[in-house]
Amino acid sequence: MTRCLALLMLLGLSACAPSLQNLVSHRHYREAICATEGQAAQTDVALAIGDDADLHYHLHRVTEAELRHVLPNAAPAVLGRGDLVRLRVVSQGLPIDGYALSARLEDRRGAGEADLASWATLAKLTGERLPQSHIEQTYATPMNLLLGAGTILTLGVPLLFTGGSYFKPGYISRAPGWNDYNRVAPLTTKLHDAIGFNGCTPRQAAEGGHVRAKCDAYFVVTDLEAGQWQLRIGQIFFADRIGVDGSARDEEKVCSLSREDVVPWLGVDQGSAMRPLPPVK
Prior knowledge:
Distance between the termini: 6 Å
């Protein structure tokens, strides 16, 4: 549905006052988001704002030639275990206070959804084991901090008699770092460094300004050819309430409307051009 059609639908809704129609038609979306009441009106205003965002997306199956630039010798084995699918989504600027995108690649048959790229899912492609968390000894424990504070308050008198022996080490579990991953799973680390884990990051507008949203994410798919895939894109539009008491809960300070679109993925090769979301029927 185009933005104009969405606005025409607003005219027929008794729940929408003429002021709301004017707010949307003049792109006063902050006010419209907070002024809209009723499920039908909220849906149509969200459609109009989403159409104005003019989302474009692109899905791309990473080829063996592309993967060879990252994993020269391991590319065939990696793609023998599954596929990497890159998703890019971009929007036009909207005069709102916050914008959140979400994206899922799911099987239309209800057989589940693809996993976002992560250390664990990339390791499934490379066939490597990942490093485990390790235990480290540390003196930075709550008890030692209390003892240290007491030592300071007593001007260090206990140190004269104990030499600090009452400070006992503790143990903490520390997650593996990049060096650990690179040592244990070098192929996975190269993939990680090449694609990153950006995903769909919520965006905030500068005061009084516009906000754009984008996704740059990778999915790991083990049965790309067998599945019947579709892309589900969610949008949430946020507006800050005016005149809300500072002690109010966070959810009382912000208004929001949401929209969701489902796009069938008809093939693994869709060219290089970004595509607009199909019209809402």
